[in-house]
Amino acid sequence: MTDFSSHQPPAETIAPRIAFTGARAVGKTSLIECIASHTFRPWPGTVGAKLHSCRLRAGEPGSRVELVDVEGLDHPTRLRGYYRGFLRGVAAYVLVVDGTRPETLRWALDLDRLLHPITPMAPTTLLVNKCDLGRAWRWDDLEAKRLMRRGLIVRVTSAKTGWGVDAAIEELRASLANPARVAS
Ligand SMILES: Nc1nc2c(ncn2[C@@H]2O[C@H](COP(=O)(O)OP(=O)(O)OP(=O)(O)O)[C@@H](O)[C@H]2O)c(=O)[nH]1
Ligand SMILES: [Mg+2]
């Protein structure tokens, strides 16, 4: 009898794809560059989407992920068709909010409502980014508790200092082993 066990693709080739979404200028590209290369510098606004393949530093040594950097949009009517294209094959997604601009949370939640039915089993983490901007910080912890009761994982990050970034992405990657999400 043929032994197919030797035909399994090496775990190395199965890199989960994680999409970063959110309003314009919340820090999606900066977070991805922080994860992929630990650098922080000004990036041009993203046009369309860009795929980054990288190894994570936290968690299982050398685990690989593909990070999809999606252009922030500010026109909801374009969203559905736009994101459908980019989210094909996505295993998990990140909703990014700018903690100095609370209005970007509404945008992230609109996206979540749109994306959740398309990828119902995809674990989701909401990152409240730019926590290094202490005096401009406007994030309300009560809001985080409310969102977490709805089943969203909420983590505070800074793409500039790296605070919370590696841990949040490793937590999301690890949750792919157990993707059931609490209904929102
Ligand atoms: N202080 C601080 N600035 C940040 C942080 N993350 C991003 N920025 C700045 O915020 C601005 C937007 O960052 P981007 O990473 O380009 O944001 P984006 O969400 O990819 O933007 P689009 O591609 O236009 O949708 C830039 O000026 C970044 O330098 C952060 O954690 N702290
Ligand atoms: Mg960008």
> Into which percent range does the helicity of residues fall?
25-40%
Estimate the global geometry from the Cα principal axes: globular
Measured by DSSP, the beta-strand proportion falls in 15-25%
Q: How many domains make up the 3D coordinates?
A: 1
Spell the H/E element sequence: EHEEHEHEHEH
Query: How far apart, in Å, are the first and last alpha carbons?
Result: 48 Å
Rg, alpha carbons: 17 Å
**Bound ligands, each once:** guanosine-5'-triphosphate, magnesium ion
Structural class: alpha/beta
User: Which CATH class is shown?
Assistant: Alpha Beta
What oligomeric state best describes the polypeptide chains here? Answer: single chain
Q: What CATH architecture would you give?
A: 3-Layer(aba) Sandwich
Q: Counting H and I runs of at least 4 residues, what is the number of helices?
A: 5
Which topology does CATH recognise? Rossmann fold
CATH level 4 superfamily: P-loop containing nucleotide triphosphate hydrolases
Count of individual beta strands: 6
Low-confidence stretches: 1-5
Mean pLDDT: 85
Strand arrangement across the biggest beta sheet: 2-3-1-4-5-6
Largest sheet: 6 strands, mixed
Task: Walk me through this protein's architecture.
- With 184 residues, this protein is α/β, with parallel strands linked by helices.
- The protein has one domain: P-loop containing nucleotide triphosphate hydrolases (Rossmann fold, 3-Layer(aba) Sandwich), CATH 3.40.50.300.
- Helix content is 29%, strand content 20%.
- The longest helix has 16 residues, at 103-118.
- The radius of gyration is 17 Å and the shape is globular.
- The termini are far apart.
- Mean pLDDT is 85; it is low at 1-5.
- Guanosine-5'-triphosphate binds at residues 24-30, 42-43, 45-46, 71-72, 129-130, 132-133, 158-160.
